[in-house]
Design brief:
The complex is a heterodimer of chains A (391) and B (167).
Chain A lengths: L1 H5 L1 H12 L5 H35 L15 H11 L10 H20 L15 H22 L3 H32 L4 H7 L3 E2 L2 E2 L6 H17 L11 H4 L9 H26 L15 H22 L5 H28 L4 H23 L14
Antiparallel strand pairs in A: 1-2
Chain B lengths: L2 H19 L3 H21 L3 H25 L15 H21 L1 H4 L10 H9 L3 H30 L1
Helix pairs in contact in B: 1-2, 2-3
Classes of the chains: A mainly alpha (391), B mainly alpha (167).
């Protein structure tokens, strides 16, 4: 029974593939995987838009959507219908072909990236030896999409937003990949499935997740910060800062094309969170030894929703960074820390298990952080800001 | 020659031609990216996963963005008024055809084509990693050193400009 629930999607897929003629089976298998991916993550997207608006409303002391259906639960459906029926306006000076292609160039690679994330036991749509490399390779296309959208709109706000977005994405891709490298070193594989397998088992009741090692914790924090910046979310949402440059590269998009951008952005967030779960949080493994009976895909999506909750919380709490702060943070703090973390992970790999390994690696992770933090803060007196009217 | 290869080759060649002939430089750069993606797809079709993904990551993710930035920061993206072909295009075509003829003649007459093809060696990402870390560790380290030097050099150039500005 436990196994049946765990493998229910895999088994139903095998059953459906078995119905097809032998010749068409690879095609049917691929189509089924794609359909499952699209349906699952599009549903999650609808759910997340609602959760985000409700959560932000809660943080900002207001209700959030509460008109459509009980507690506003049908809001995503209403939003979807609105986006589809809205007029699609293309500026007369815009570059029509590039303007049209930009949202597609965003959404298609993001779905491709989701394919390598194992969402449960035996549930990776694409199990390739170079999974992590594949993920980052298709992720490169999103920068292109942002440029295409910004340039083709012939609008200075769009172009400014695109330039900001590309500068930000390129800068934060370096710490993102470097923090992922530590896990690749520890697991000895680029395959996402093998990385999850390498985190199976428990030390007593503590799971063998990479996040529970000194370099893993540092890597996870660096990875999630870089992921926030990669997906242009607050506090790194300068490319679309509506109070500065209207909405950046989205300015000239309306109707369904805008909805596609919105979808692509959220799916990118799911993809990079899913990779974070795979790399650091043990993928679909249960957090405690006795909880193995809960299906593996439940654990994956529970972890994903928990990470999304953190993203919403951060968005509701932190103010937006300034452009120079953004760049300085990536290059002066995150890059050196990520490099030091790679060194720590390498030493962890070759030292015998024990207390000495913990002490040495914790020192290697903590010392650069403290030293760099002190050096960068300099003689600036950083104190709590006192608000005159809103204490 | 399989169908998928034919489609990929046609797409790559067509986008390469478009990259040379389109009037708007940004369109040319976008077409060049299609060409590079097509090349990556050909690598993947040949079973070279690592090269294929690295091609996408480096050429589309970094080089193409660099090209686009260079176009936007220098000439502007307005199409040129005069013809995009230089006056001496006839000689260029003649030289290109001559080089292509010579090369294909040499390749066709060499023994490499007539030889029975050996089965291609297994080149999984895992093996490439082991080889890079074992047999080819010295070249890897040298390249790493070279790239680090280039990186520091770039930073130095950027810093000097800033000093000049303040002085």
């Amino acid at each position: 029974m436990v196994d049946t629930m765990d493998q229910i999607f895999v088994m139903s897929k095998h059953w459906l593939v078995g119905l097809a003629p032998t010749q068409g089976q690879p095609v049917v298998s691929a189509l089924l995987s794609i359909a499952a991916l699209v349906i699952a993550f599009a549903t999650l997207f609808a759910l997340t838009t609602l959760l985000e608006r409700k959560g932000l409303g809660r943080i900002q002391n207001r209700y959030g959507p509460n008109r459509v259906g009980p507690y506003g639960v049908f809001q995503p459906i209403a939003d979807g219908l609105k986006a589809m029926t809205k007029e699609d306006i293309v500026p007369s000076t815009a570059d029509k072909v590039v303007h049209f292609a930009a949202p597609l160039v965003l959404v298609v690679p993001v779905f491709l990236a989701l394919a390598v994330v194992p969402v449960g036991r035996d549930m990776a749509a694409l199990d390739t030896d170079a999974g992590v490399l594949f993920f980052f390779a298709v992720g490169a296309a999103t920068e292109l999409s942002v440029f295409m959208a910004g340039w083709s709109s012939r609008n200075k706000y769009s172009l400014l937003g695109a330039m900001r977005a590309i500068a930000q994405m390129i800068s934060y891709e370096v710490p993102l990949i470097l923090s992922a490298v530590t896990v690749i070193m520890a697991a000895g594989s680029l395959s996402t499935v093998k990385i999850v397998t390498a985190q199976a088992g428990y030390w007593g009741i503590v799971p063998r997740w990479y996040v529970l090692t000194p370099w893993g914790l540092a890597g996870f924090i660096l990875f999630m910060i870089a992921a926030t910046a990669e997906s242009n979310r607050s506090p790194f949402d300068l490319p679309e800062g509506e109070s500065e440059i209207i909405a950046g590269y989205y300015t000239e998009y309306s109707g369904f094309k805008f909805a596609l951008f919105f979808l692509g952005e959220y799916l990118g967030l799911f993809a990079v969170s899913g990779l974070g779960i795979t790399l650091f949080l043990g993928g679909w493994h249960a957090p405690l030894p006795g909880l193995g009976w809960v299906p593996s895909w439940v654990w994956f999506f529970a972890k994903l929703l928990a990470l999304i909750a953190v993203f919403i919380w951060v968005r509701g709490t932190l103010p937006r960074l300034r452009m120079d702060q953004l760049m300085g943070f990536a290059w002066k703090l995150m890059l050196p820390l990520a490099l030091a973390n790679v060194l720590a992970a390498g030493i962890w790999r070759f030292m015998a298990p024990g207390l000495a390994r913990w002490l040495v690696c914790s020192f290697l992770v903590a010392a650069p952080y403290l030293l760099l933090g002190r050096a960068l803060a300099g003689r600036k007196q950083l104190t709590k800001r006192v608000y005159r009217f809103a204490d | 020659m399989t169908w998928s290869f034919a489609i990929l080759a046609a797409l790559t060649l067509a986008s390469a031609v478009a990259a040379m002939t389109l009037r708007n430089l940004v369109h040319c750069a976008l077409m060049l990216m299609v060409t590079l993606a097509g090349l990556a797809a050909v690598y993947l079709q040949l079973g070279a996963q690592f090269v294929g993904f690295a091609q996408i990551l480096i050429y589309i993710g970094a080089v193409a963005i660099l090209i686009v930035f260079a176009i936007l920061l220098t000439r502007g993206s307005e199409p040129p008024r005069q013809s995009i072909f230089s006056a001496g295009w006839v000689y260029g075509v003649a030289i290109a055809v001559a080089v292509f003829g010579l090369l294909s003649g040499v390749i066709l007459s060499s023994q490499a084509v007539t030889h029975e093809l050996r089965p291609p060696p297994e080149a999984t990402v895992r093996q490439i990693g082991i080889e890079l870390m074992g047999k080819f560790i010295l070249p890897l380290e040298v390249i790493g050193l070279l790239l680090t030097a280039a990186l520091i050099g770039a930073v130095l150039i950027a810093m000097r400009e800033k000093e000049g500005k303040t002085a």
